[in-house]
Amino acid sequence: MSLKKFLNDKLYLIIIFLVIYIVLLLMFLAFKIDKSLILVTSVILFVFIIVILSIEYFRRKDFYTNLLSNIEKLDKAYLVLETINKPNFYDGEILCQALYEVNKSMMEFINSIESQMNDFKEYIEMWIHEVKIPIASLVLMTHNNSSILDKKYEEQIKKLENYVEQVLYYARSENAEKDYLINEVSLNKIISNVALKNKDDLLENKIDLIVLNVEYKIYTDSKWLEFIINQIINNSIKYKRKIRNSYVKIDTHDYEDKIILTIEDNGIGIQPSDIRKVFDKTFTGKNGRIMTKSTGMGLFIAKNLCQKLGHKIEIESTENKYTKVSIIISKNRYYEVLK
Q1: Is the same domain home to 121 and 18?
Q2: Fewer CB within 10 A of the end CB, N or C, for the chain?
Q3: What is the tally of structural domains in the chain?
Q4: What is the pLDDT averaged over residues 251-261?
Protein backbone atom coordinates (compact mmCIF):
# COMPACT_ATOMS: atom_id res chain seq x y z
CA MET A 1 0.00 0.00 0.00
CA SER A 2 1.50 3.34 -1.10
CA LEU A 3 1.85 6.05 1.58
CA LYS A 4 1.71 8.73 -1.11
CA LYS A 5 -1.61 7.44 -2.45
CA PHE A 6 -2.97 7.06 1.09
CA LEU A 7 -2.14 10.70 1.92
CA ASN A 8 -3.58 11.80 -1.40
CA ASP A 9 -6.80 9.97 -0.52
CA LYS A 10 -6.86 11.73 2.90
CA LEU A 11 -6.00 15.12 1.42
CA TYR A 12 -9.40 16.54 2.29
CA LEU A 13 -8.83 15.76 6.01
CA ILE A 14 -5.41 17.37 5.92
CA ILE A 15 -6.87 20.51 4.30
CA ILE A 16 -9.69 20.69 6.88
CA PHE A 17 -7.12 20.30 9.68
CA LEU A 18 -4.96 23.09 8.27
CA VAL A 19 -7.97 25.39 7.90
CA ILE A 20 -9.01 24.75 11.52
CA TYR A 21 -5.43 25.25 12.70
CA ILE A 22 -5.15 28.59 10.87
CA VAL A 23 -8.47 29.77 12.36
CA LEU A 24 -7.32 28.80 15.87
CA LEU A 25 -3.97 30.50 15.32
CA LEU A 26 -5.70 33.73 14.27
CA MET A 27 -7.96 33.53 17.33
CA PHE A 28 -4.95 33.02 19.63
CA LEU A 29 -3.22 36.02 18.08
CA ALA A 30 -6.38 38.15 18.32
CA PHE A 31 -6.72 37.39 22.02
CA LYS A 32 -2.94 37.93 22.49
CA ILE A 33 -2.36 34.42 23.85
CA ASP A 34 1.18 33.75 25.04
CA LYS A 35 3.44 32.56 22.20
CA SER A 36 4.77 29.63 24.18
CA LEU A 37 1.19 28.35 24.67
CA ILE A 38 0.51 28.77 20.94
CA LEU A 39 3.64 26.74 20.16
CA VAL A 40 2.73 23.92 22.55
CA THR A 41 -0.83 23.80 21.20
CA SER A 42 0.47 23.69 17.61
CA VAL A 43 2.83 20.82 18.39
CA ILE A 44 0.05 18.88 20.11
CA LEU A 45 -2.30 19.37 17.17
CA PHE A 46 0.27 18.31 14.56
CA VAL A 47 1.36 15.31 16.60
CA PHE A 48 -2.32 14.36 16.97
CA ILE A 49 -3.06 14.46 13.23
CA ILE A 50 0.19 12.59 12.39
CA VAL A 51 -0.60 9.86 14.92
CA ILE A 52 -4.18 9.49 13.64
CA LEU A 53 -3.04 9.26 10.01
CA SER A 54 -0.24 6.81 10.91
CA ILE A 55 -2.61 4.50 12.79
CA GLU A 56 -5.08 4.54 9.90
CA TYR A 57 -2.32 3.94 7.36
CA PHE A 58 -0.64 0.99 9.10
CA ARG A 59 -3.94 -0.71 9.92
CA ARG A 60 -4.93 -0.64 6.24
CA LYS A 61 -1.41 -1.35 5.00
CA ASP A 62 -1.19 -4.69 6.86
CA PHE A 63 -4.64 -5.79 5.70
CA TYR A 64 -4.35 -4.81 2.04
CA THR A 65 -0.76 -6.01 1.67
CA ASN A 66 -1.81 -9.40 3.03
CA LEU A 67 -4.89 -9.41 0.76
CA LEU A 68 -2.95 -8.64 -2.44
CA SER A 69 -0.14 -11.07 -1.53
CA ASN A 70 -2.58 -13.94 -0.97
CA ILE A 71 -4.39 -13.19 -4.24
CA GLU A 72 -1.08 -13.53 -6.12
CA LYS A 73 -0.21 -16.81 -4.38
CA LEU A 74 -3.57 -18.51 -4.85
CA ASP A 75 -4.43 -20.48 -7.99
CA LYS A 76 -8.08 -19.72 -7.28
CA ALA A 77 -8.12 -16.07 -6.24
CA TYR A 78 -11.79 -16.16 -5.24
CA LEU A 79 -10.78 -18.20 -2.15
CA VAL A 80 -8.77 -15.29 -0.74
CA LEU A 81 -11.38 -14.51 1.92
CA GLU A 82 -10.54 -17.84 3.57
CA THR A 83 -6.90 -16.76 4.02
CA ILE A 84 -7.18 -13.31 5.58
CA ASN A 85 -8.09 -12.08 9.06
CA LYS A 86 -11.14 -9.93 9.61
CA PRO A 87 -10.11 -6.24 9.34
CA ASN A 88 -10.42 -3.97 12.39
CA PHE A 89 -11.63 -0.94 10.46
CA TYR A 90 -15.11 -0.32 9.10
CA ASP A 91 -14.44 0.14 5.37
CA GLY A 92 -12.41 -3.09 5.43
CA GLU A 93 -15.39 -4.92 6.90
CA ILE A 94 -17.59 -3.49 4.14
CA LEU A 95 -15.06 -4.70 1.52
CA CYS A 96 -14.99 -8.23 2.98
CA GLN A 97 -18.76 -8.38 3.09
CA ALA A 98 -18.96 -7.18 -0.52
CA LEU A 99 -16.37 -9.80 -1.61
CA TYR A 100 -18.31 -12.49 0.23
CA GLU A 101 -21.54 -11.56 -1.55
CA VAL A 102 -19.75 -11.41 -4.92
CA ASN A 103 -18.16 -14.85 -4.35
CA LYS A 104 -21.48 -16.29 -3.26
CA SER A 105 -23.18 -14.97 -6.38
CA MET A 106 -20.33 -16.24 -8.59
CA MET A 107 -20.44 -19.73 -7.06
CA GLU A 108 -24.20 -19.92 -7.53
CA PHE A 109 -23.77 -18.90 -11.16
CA ILE A 110 -20.95 -21.43 -11.72
CA ASN A 111 -22.99 -24.21 -10.12
CA SER A 112 -25.88 -23.34 -12.39
CA ILE A 113 -23.65 -23.40 -15.49
CA GLU A 114 -22.01 -26.69 -14.43
CA SER A 115 -25.42 -28.24 -13.88
CA GLN A 116 -26.51 -27.16 -17.37
CA MET A 117 -23.26 -28.48 -18.90
CA ASN A 118 -23.60 -31.82 -17.13
CA ASP A 119 -27.19 -32.13 -18.32
CA PHE A 120 -26.09 -31.31 -21.87
CA LYS A 121 -23.22 -33.83 -21.77
CA GLU A 122 -25.51 -36.53 -20.43
CA TYR A 123 -27.93 -35.78 -23.26
CA ILE A 124 -25.11 -35.92 -25.84
CA GLU A 125 -23.93 -39.30 -24.52
CA MET A 126 -27.47 -40.65 -24.55
CA TRP A 127 -28.03 -39.29 -28.07
CA ILE A 128 -24.77 -40.86 -29.29
CA HIS A 129 -25.75 -44.27 -27.94
CA GLU A 130 -29.13 -43.95 -29.64
CA VAL A 131 -27.73 -42.80 -32.99
CA LYS A 132 -25.17 -45.63 -33.03
CA ILE A 133 -28.04 -48.11 -33.47
CA PRO A 134 -29.19 -46.80 -36.89
CA ILE A 135 -25.53 -46.37 -37.91
CA ALA A 136 -24.85 -50.01 -37.07
CA SER A 137 -27.94 -50.93 -39.09
CA LEU A 138 -26.65 -48.91 -42.05
CA VAL A 139 -23.27 -50.66 -41.83
CA LEU A 140 -24.97 -54.06 -41.85
CA MET A 141 -27.22 -53.06 -44.77
CA THR A 142 -24.26 -51.89 -46.86
CA HIS A 143 -22.42 -55.15 -46.20
CA ASN A 144 -25.46 -57.22 -47.14
CA ASN A 145 -25.99 -55.20 -50.31
CA SER A 146 -22.37 -54.51 -51.24
CA SER A 147 -22.92 -55.93 -54.73
CA ILE A 148 -25.50 -53.30 -55.65
CA LEU A 149 -24.39 -50.32 -53.57
CA ASP A 150 -21.58 -47.99 -54.50
CA LYS A 151 -18.51 -48.22 -52.22
CA LYS A 152 -18.90 -44.52 -51.44
CA TYR A 153 -21.97 -45.23 -49.31
CA GLU A 154 -19.95 -47.46 -47.00
CA GLU A 155 -17.13 -44.92 -46.84
CA GLN A 156 -19.49 -42.13 -45.79
CA ILE A 157 -21.14 -44.32 -43.15
CA LYS A 158 -17.71 -45.18 -41.72
CA LYS A 159 -16.84 -41.49 -41.55
CA LEU A 160 -20.12 -40.81 -39.77
CA GLU A 161 -19.41 -43.65 -37.33
CA ASN A 162 -15.92 -42.30 -36.62
CA TYR A 163 -17.15 -38.73 -36.03
CA VAL A 164 -19.86 -39.95 -33.66
CA GLU A 165 -17.26 -41.98 -31.76
CA GLN A 166 -15.03 -38.91 -31.50
CA VAL A 167 -17.86 -36.92 -29.95
CA LEU A 168 -18.57 -39.72 -27.47
CA TYR A 169 -14.98 -40.00 -26.27
CA TYR A 170 -14.54 -36.24 -26.17
CA ALA A 171 -17.55 -36.00 -23.86
CA ARG A 172 -16.25 -38.89 -21.77
CA SER A 173 -12.79 -37.35 -21.46
CA GLU A 174 -14.38 -34.33 -19.77
CA ASN A 175 -16.22 -36.61 -17.32
CA ALA A 176 -13.72 -39.42 -16.87
CA GLU A 177 -15.20 -40.68 -13.63
CA LYS A 178 -18.36 -41.82 -15.46
CA ASP A 179 -16.65 -44.26 -17.83
CA TYR A 180 -13.20 -44.84 -16.49
CA LEU A 181 -11.79 -48.17 -15.33
CA ILE A 182 -8.13 -49.14 -15.23
CA ASN A 183 -7.37 -52.84 -14.91
CA GLU A 184 -5.01 -55.46 -16.34
CA VAL A 185 -5.85 -56.12 -19.99
CA SER A 186 -4.26 -57.89 -22.95
CA LEU A 187 -2.50 -55.51 -25.34
CA ASN A 188 -2.70 -58.19 -28.03
CA LYS A 189 -6.49 -58.29 -27.74
CA ILE A 190 -6.73 -54.50 -28.02
CA ILE A 191 -4.55 -54.49 -31.15
CA SER A 192 -6.61 -57.34 -32.64
CA ASN A 193 -9.84 -55.39 -32.11
CA VAL A 194 -8.35 -52.29 -33.77
CA ALA A 195 -7.02 -54.37 -36.70
CA LEU A 196 -10.41 -56.00 -37.22
CA LYS A 197 -12.15 -52.64 -37.17
CA ASN A 198 -9.79 -51.19 -39.80
CA LYS A 199 -9.39 -54.36 -41.89
CA ASP A 200 -11.46 -53.20 -44.87
CA ASP A 201 -9.84 -49.75 -45.05
CA LEU A 202 -6.35 -51.24 -44.83
CA LEU A 203 -7.08 -53.73 -47.60
CA GLU A 204 -8.77 -51.17 -49.82
CA ASN A 205 -5.83 -48.77 -49.49
CA LYS A 206 -3.32 -51.62 -49.93
CA ILE A 207 -1.62 -50.93 -46.61
CA ASP A 208 0.18 -53.79 -44.86
CA LEU A 209 -0.41 -54.02 -41.12
CA ILE A 210 2.69 -55.31 -39.34
CA VAL A 211 2.23 -56.28 -35.70
CA LEU A 212 5.24 -57.19 -33.52
CA ASN A 213 5.81 -57.94 -29.83
CA VAL A 214 2.35 -57.17 -28.45
CA GLU A 215 2.03 -60.14 -26.06
CA TYR A 216 1.87 -57.99 -22.95
CA LYS A 217 -0.48 -57.38 -20.06
CA ILE A 218 -0.89 -53.68 -19.34
CA TYR A 219 -2.86 -51.50 -16.95
CA THR A 220 -5.25 -49.25 -18.84
CA ASP A 221 -8.86 -48.80 -19.89
CA SER A 222 -9.21 -51.13 -22.90
CA LYS A 223 -12.02 -49.19 -24.61
CA TRP A 224 -10.17 -45.89 -24.34
CA LEU A 225 -6.86 -47.30 -25.56
CA GLU A 226 -8.65 -48.95 -28.51
CA PHE A 227 -10.09 -45.57 -29.46
CA ILE A 228 -6.67 -43.88 -29.16
CA ILE A 229 -4.93 -46.46 -31.36
CA ASN A 230 -7.82 -46.39 -33.81
CA GLN A 231 -7.45 -42.61 -34.25
CA ILE A 232 -3.75 -43.04 -34.99
CA ILE A 233 -4.40 -45.85 -37.50
CA ASN A 234 -7.09 -43.74 -39.18
CA ASN A 235 -4.55 -40.95 -39.66
CA SER A 236 -2.04 -43.42 -41.12
CA ILE A 237 -4.64 -44.56 -43.65
CA LYS A 238 -5.81 -41.06 -44.40
CA TYR A 239 -2.32 -39.68 -45.02
CA LYS A 240 -0.73 -42.57 -46.93
CA ARG A 241 1.67 -41.99 -49.80
CA LYS A 242 0.97 -43.28 -53.28
CA ILE A 243 3.61 -46.00 -53.15
CA ARG A 244 3.45 -49.79 -53.45
CA ASN A 245 4.83 -50.82 -50.09
CA SER A 246 2.65 -48.73 -47.74
CA TYR A 247 2.58 -50.10 -44.22
CA VAL A 248 1.53 -49.45 -40.65
CA LYS A 249 3.79 -51.10 -38.10
CA ILE A 250 2.74 -51.66 -34.50
CA ASP A 251 5.58 -52.61 -32.18
CA THR A 252 6.15 -52.73 -28.42
CA HIS A 253 9.32 -52.16 -26.42
CA ASP A 254 9.60 -53.39 -22.84
CA TYR A 255 11.60 -51.30 -20.42
CA GLU A 256 12.17 -51.65 -16.68
CA ASP A 257 9.23 -49.52 -15.52
CA LYS A 258 7.26 -48.90 -18.70
CA ILE A 259 6.02 -50.33 -21.97
CA ILE A 260 6.26 -48.19 -25.11
CA LEU A 261 3.76 -48.94 -27.85
CA THR A 262 4.81 -47.46 -31.21
CA ILE A 263 2.65 -47.06 -34.30
CA GLU A 264 4.70 -46.16 -37.36
CA ASP A 265 3.72 -45.59 -40.99
CA ASN A 266 5.56 -44.60 -44.15
CA GLY A 267 2.99 -42.03 -45.20
CA ILE A 268 3.39 -38.40 -46.20
CA GLY A 269 4.70 -37.38 -42.77
CA ILE A 270 4.25 -34.04 -41.04
CA GLN A 271 5.82 -30.68 -41.74
CA PRO A 272 8.42 -29.58 -39.11
CA SER A 273 6.38 -26.42 -38.45
CA ASP A 274 3.26 -28.51 -37.71
CA ILE A 275 4.75 -31.25 -35.52
CA ARG A 276 4.42 -29.26 -32.26
CA LYS A 277 0.78 -28.43 -32.92
CA VAL A 278 -0.68 -31.79 -33.99
CA PHE A 279 -2.15 -32.40 -30.52
CA ASP A 280 -3.76 -28.94 -30.39
CA LYS A 281 -7.52 -28.72 -30.52
CA THR A 282 -8.92 -28.36 -34.10
CA PHE A 283 -5.40 -28.06 -35.59
CA THR A 284 -5.37 -29.54 -39.11
CA GLY A 285 -2.06 -28.33 -40.49
CA LYS A 286 -0.92 -28.49 -44.10
CA ASN A 287 -1.91 -32.15 -44.54
CA GLY A 288 -5.42 -31.60 -43.21
CA ARG A 289 -5.99 -28.76 -45.64
CA ILE A 290 -4.47 -30.30 -48.76
CA MET A 291 -4.94 -34.08 -48.55
CA THR A 292 -8.37 -34.38 -46.97
CA LYS A 293 -10.84 -32.47 -44.88
CA SER A 294 -10.01 -32.94 -41.21
CA THR A 295 -11.61 -31.87 -37.93
CA GLY A 296 -8.28 -31.69 -36.11
CA MET A 297 -9.88 -33.40 -33.10
CA GLY A 298 -8.62 -37.00 -33.32
CA LEU A 299 -5.13 -36.53 -31.86
CA PHE A 300 -6.37 -33.85 -29.46
CA ILE A 301 -8.87 -36.29 -27.95
CA ALA A 302 -6.25 -39.07 -28.00
CA LYS A 303 -3.80 -36.98 -25.97
CA ASN A 304 -6.54 -35.90 -23.56
CA LEU A 305 -7.52 -39.53 -22.96
CA CYS A 306 -3.87 -40.54 -22.49
CA GLN A 307 -3.48 -37.89 -19.80
CA LYS A 308 -6.60 -39.14 -18.03
CA LEU A 309 -5.23 -42.72 -18.16
CA GLY A 310 -1.81 -41.68 -16.86
CA HIS A 311 -0.13 -42.54 -20.18
CA LYS A 312 2.06 -40.30 -22.30
CA ILE A 313 1.81 -39.83 -26.05
CA GLU A 314 4.60 -38.52 -28.28
CA ILE A 315 5.02 -38.08 -32.01
CA GLU A 316 7.92 -37.77 -34.41
CA SER A 317 7.91 -37.46 -38.17
CA THR A 318 9.91 -36.65 -41.27
CA GLU A 319 7.99 -35.24 -44.21
CA ASN A 320 7.51 -37.72 -47.09
CA LYS A 321 9.20 -40.48 -45.06
CA TYR A 322 7.43 -41.60 -41.90
CA THR A 323 5.35 -40.75 -38.83
CA LYS A 324 5.79 -42.57 -35.51
CA VAL A 325 3.47 -42.18 -32.53
CA SER A 326 4.59 -43.58 -29.17
CA ILE A 327 2.27 -44.36 -26.27
CA ILE A 328 4.16 -44.75 -22.99
CA ILE A 329 2.38 -46.97 -20.47
CA SER A 330 3.60 -47.37 -16.91
CA LYS A 331 3.91 -50.88 -15.50
CA ASN A 332 2.87 -49.69 -12.04
CA ARG A 333 -0.88 -50.07 -11.59
CA TYR A 334 -0.80 -47.37 -8.88
CA TYR A 335 0.67 -44.64 -11.07
CA GLU A 336 -0.82 -41.20 -10.75
CA VAL A 337 -3.58 -40.37 -13.19
CA LEU A 338 -4.92 -36.93 -14.10
CA LYS A 339 -8.22 -36.14 -12.43
Answers
A1: no
A2: C
A3: 3
A4: 91
Query: How far is 100 from 46, CA to CA, in rounded Å?
Result: 39
Three-state SS across the chain?
CCHHHHHHHCHHHHHHHHHHHHHHHHHHHHCCCCHHHHHHHHHHHHHHHHHHHHHHHHHHHHHHHHHHHHHHHCCCHHHHHHCCCCCCCHHHHHHHHHHHHHHHHHHHHHHHHHHHHHHHHHHHHHHHHHHHHHHHHHHHHHHHCCCCCCHHHHHHHHHHHHHHHHHHHHHHHHCHHHCCCCEEEEHHHHHHHHHHHCHHHHHHCCCEEEECCCCCEEEECHHHHHHHHHHHHHHHHHCCCCCCCCEEEEEEEECCCEEEEEEEECCCCCCCCCHHHCCCCCCCHHHHHHCCCCCCCHHHHHHHHHHHHCCEEEEEEECCCEEEEEEEEECCCCCCCCC
Same domain for 290 and 231?
A: yes
Per residue in 13-62, pLDDT tens?
Answer: 889 989 998 998 888 888 888 888 889 989 999 999 999 889 888 888 88
pLDDT in tens, 187-207: 999 999 999 999 988 998 999
Same domain for 208 and 260, yes or no, is yes
Residue 93 identity: E
Per-residue pLDDT band for 236 (boundaries 50, 70, 90) equals: very high
End-to-end Cα spacing for the chain: 39
Provide the pLDDT confidence category of residue 287 given band limits of 50, 70 and 90: low
Q: Tell me which residue range forms the domain holding 122.
A: 106-179
User: Which tops the pLDDT comparison, 54 or 335?
Assistant: 54
Q: What global pTM score does this model have? A: 0.68
